[in-house]
Amino acid sequence: MLAVATWLLGVAPFTAPARASSEKPREVITIATSGQTAVVSDAIAAAFAARFEAPIPRVTETPTRSAFDEFCSAVNAGPDVVVAGRRMSHAELGRCRRAEAGDIVEIPIGYEVAVFVTRRDGPALDLTPDQLFDLVAANGSRPARWADAGVAEFGEDVRVLMPPPDDPAFDIIRERILIMACRDRPGIRDMRDAASRTTACGSIRDDAGIVSELDQRQITRTLGRGAVGLVGNSVFQHDNANLQPVLIDGERPTILGVVSGSYPAARPLFVYAKADRMRNGRGRGKVRGLRDLAEFIAGDEIIGPQGVLGRLGLIMAPAERRVVTRMRTMALVPFNR
């Protein structure tokens, strides 16, 4: 069934390199990641190879569900590491245990953040998730004028600039704002099929109110008065002298707002690694450098405020949480839910 699903998606099933019969440790670490977290995974792989003068880990893009399926298939099968834009579910962890895939180490690595922005020299906006859904979703009310959205003071005609659907900022808004605001609406809550609900809630309007498929830098360059644009946190921070965030239910995309969950347009990222393939684990070093990679990811060079991921625009967890993450990773504490 997995083979059929991955063939339909156009994604090859993940296969770890074959191991030599001499049981010599494998030299190349394998990482599975979704398209939305590929930039993060590539940055981690490149930093690790440079820091340890080691072979660069092989990063393969595959849907997160498929990555976890392969990761949990058996102790000696699938990728060594999964980078995911969500936490492994109870069902996926249960599948790992039933397959006797061995202990798993979980490493929280920060938060991806999406920000609706306006020009700093224009009026500020504070919108609810319901208002955002109506503004951008195909099944919203599609107001043509800002007055129809309840914010007449912002401008005349509604104009929202959006990146492509495969952009992480777009994906965060679809997942954390549109789908959440939509799920209890008439006609949606009665849908039994989750895929149908996701399509109905996550589709974007295609009329004059939306300008889509724009690069994030292009959005900031062409953003005019009376318009709203969607960008990631890195682009917002780079140009925050000219941009101001749209508040969502009164919340700004601050570190405290993101980490506490008060600011809704953010999602945590996680790394999962197989402890049984690490040295001193029960696998006694089946993959060379895997434990070094896990400890490197949990350190400040990657998840510190000035680390690799911080420079990509992720918001990092507070220092005390990062210390706990580092200690748990170094001790190979098994992931549990």
- Give the CA-based shape: globular
The CATH topology label of the largest domain is D-Maltodextrin-Binding Protein, domain 2
Low-pLDDT regions:
1-15
What's the structural domain tally?
2
Number of separate helices: 14
Order of helices and strands: HEHEHEHEEHEHHEHEHEEHEHHHH
Helix content: 25-40%
| Structural Rg | 21 Å
The main sheet comes to: 9 strands, mixed
- Mean pLDDT, as a whole number? 90
CATH superfamily of the largest domain: Periplasmic binding protein-like II
Strand content: 15-25%
| CATH-level-2 architecture of the largest domain | 3-Layer(aba) Sandwich
Classification by helices and strands:
alpha/beta
> How far apart are the termini?
27 Å
CATH class of the largest domain: Alpha Beta
The total beta strand count reads 11
Please tell me about this protein's structure.
This protein has 337 residues and is α/β, with parallel strands linked by helices. It folds into two domains: 24-111 and 267-330, 3-Layer(aba) Sandwich (D-Maltodextrin-Binding Protein, domain 2); 113-266, Periplasmic binding protein-like II (D-Maltodextrin-Binding Protein, domain 2). The chain has 14 helices and eleven strands. Strand 1 (30-33), helix 2 and strand 2 (58-61) form a beta-alpha-beta unit. Residues 1-15 have low confidence and may be disordered.
Concise account of the structure shown:
By secondary structure, this protein is α/β, with parallel strands linked by helices.
